[in-house]
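Internal tracking record. Fields below are filled automatically when a chain is submitted to the structure queue. Please do not edit lines marked as system-generated. If the sequence contains nonstandard residues, flag them in the REMARKS field before resubmitting.
Queue: standard
Priority: normal
Entity type: single polypeptide chain
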Amino acid sequence: MKTRDLLQLPDTKLAATISTMKSKECEKHLRNYTKILGIEFEMAIMQATHAAMFSDSDEPVKLRTYKAVVDLVRSETEYGEKEAAILTALLLAHISKKMNKVQSLVGQTQAPAFH
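SYSTEM-GENERATED OUTPUT FOLLOWS
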């Protein structure tokens, strides 16, 4: 599926599609969407990762990440909350898939426990 086709999906179908994407496909769409919006991919990743993992806020991860992405979208583009919501979904899915991949690799490299 092309990124433009993905963006034409209704919100619930878009969310379901993003959640079932493989890591590489999610990253491809994320890179394409940041390019469409005129935002640097790395900047979007850094903003979302910081909001999701390092923020001092007590707000839920999705909310604080969304707020950070809204701020980024508003400061870097002429786009608004709808585009920020899509970007947030892609960013959170991408970060989650990357973290799951890292955790599975770490689990494979741990030495077996001897009794």
